[in-house]
Amino acid sequence: EALDVVALDFVAPLIALFGEGWTRCFYSRNWQCRVAALTHLSAIMAQRLEDVSDAPLAELLDGCMRAVHEGLGDQNVRVYAEACMAVTAIVPSFCGTVDGRLLVAHLAPLLRQLCARMGDSKEVVRTQTTQAMFRLLSPPTGNIVSPVAIAMLILRHLMPSKEEGDSPLASVSKGATGKGAVTGWLCRLSALRQLCKEYPKMIVQQPGSSNPGEWLRLSDGLKHADPSVRHQAVRLYTLVCKMHLRSLGDEESQRPARETWVASLPKDVPVKSIGQVRRYLKLPEAVPEETPAEVKKSLGMTAMTIACIPWDVPSSLAGWAGCSSEILGVLSAPRRGDEKHVIAALKALGKGNCGSSGSLDEAFSNICRAIQQALAAPTGADRYVFLCAVELCQSSVQQLSTSLSGLDLNMALGKVFPTLLERTALSSLAGDVKVGVASDKLVRQLAKHPK
Fold first, then answer.
1. Cα–Cα distance between 424 and 376 in angstroms, integer?
2. Beta bridge partners of 438
3. 135 CB-contact burial (10 Å; exposed 0-12 / middle 13-18 / buried 19+)
4. What is the DSSP string of 108-162?
5. Can you spell out the DSSP letters for 371-406?
6. By CB count within 10 A, which of 172, 180, 234, 408 is most buried?
């Protein structure tokens, strides 16, 4: 259809470059005409660049970028998809022909527009957007657009309300709340993860750095209300951490720097998300003293209510377990870092001989005290220490209960059970499902026991 007289001045530059017929097609109310105009523009670009002289080259670049920019703002899905294809067909044509800095200046608003549309409620729009951004990373465009620049741009668009405010781009990105916000988060996190996988050397600007830098923006994902967003944010944050610290050596060498990455997270990140980050980084779970005060207050506790009191491990217990006193000595007063030794001691007790000389009720009482020592100490925050303690408790009850009176059995368990349940509650704050399941199985087993 004919162009509006009022808009003639606005479209005059495009008419001068591409003709009135193309311009009328591009501004048509019919979406098929708009798609055809963008397709035609992509097809003729190589020929136009051969025919054009240096003087109008800048004008041609301006006109092409304007057309693509308006196409990316089109609300019709098919027109938008064609505009994404046009970006990756037109921009490479200008590489090596115009100054790189001028091309980057034109690309910047296009990339921001693409980042905004990654939060669109329509899956086809999100898919086309992501594919277009990755195509721009291929040569020759990839020589002026780096993967780390794309990654930083996506990071800054994770929270549109903070970066965009009431800008036109914010209104273009549909689904700012509810399900749309979740899909936008997941789309951007997926793109960032793909960037990290495909361009690890370019993403890591400072190998060995213990400062997360811009990646701390993922903390908003760790605080997100949707569990799938939190999970993907945890995975991405820990992946980036490992990529940056890989140059430091093995996991043990990386541990102090990994702790720094965890400590860099804002204080308002939920304890459960922090716990997931620590597990992915293979760090020991935080001891109760590191639990935020507001969480402790909500649970009615300030620390482990049952303290780990130094204990003189009886020599008879080592004889009953058939191991040396040095193995069980760690249970006297376990400290952080003793987790492996505590696990070895608990496993040694689990191999004890019921036929050994000595009082079985005394042996059972000492086993329960050993479990209490392992769980009340900082070592109890370790998942494997907890699981080993639960396994020892289960096997001891199973093997010794037939030879013990109900009174002896209940008195010994009565001392260890409060510590075990309290440790379970603290571990559940970090989202450790295995600890909760193991504790629940033990409670069910004891509840069904005849004694």
1. 11
2. none
3. middle
4. HHHHHHHHHHTT-S-HHHHHHHHHHHHHTTSTTGGGTS-HHHHHHHHHHTSSHHH
5. HHHHHHSGGGGSHHHHHHHHHHHHHHHHHHGGGS-H
6. 234
- Please report the pLDDT score of residue 128 as a whole number: 94
Residue 71 has pLDDT above 50, yes or no: yes
Average per-residue pLDDT in the chain?
Answer: 83
Query: How far is residue 195's CA from residue 111's CA, in Å, rounded to a whole number?
Result: 15
Output the pLDDT for position 171: 37
pLDDT tens, residue by residue, 390-447: 888 888 888 888 888 888 788 888 878 788 888 877 766 656 677 778 888 888 888 8
Q: Which residues of 269-294 are buried (b: 16+ CB within 10 A; e: fewer)?
A: bbbbbbbbbbbbbebbbbbbeebbee
CB neighbourhood size of 171 (10 A): 11
The pTM score is: 0.61
Burial of 55 from C-beta contacts in 10 A (0-12 / 13-18 / 19+) = exposed
Q: What are the CA-CA distances from residue 127 to residues 81, 90, 118, 187 (Å)?
A: 9, 20, 8, 8
CA distance 222 to 232: 9
Specify the residue for token string 């610290």. 245
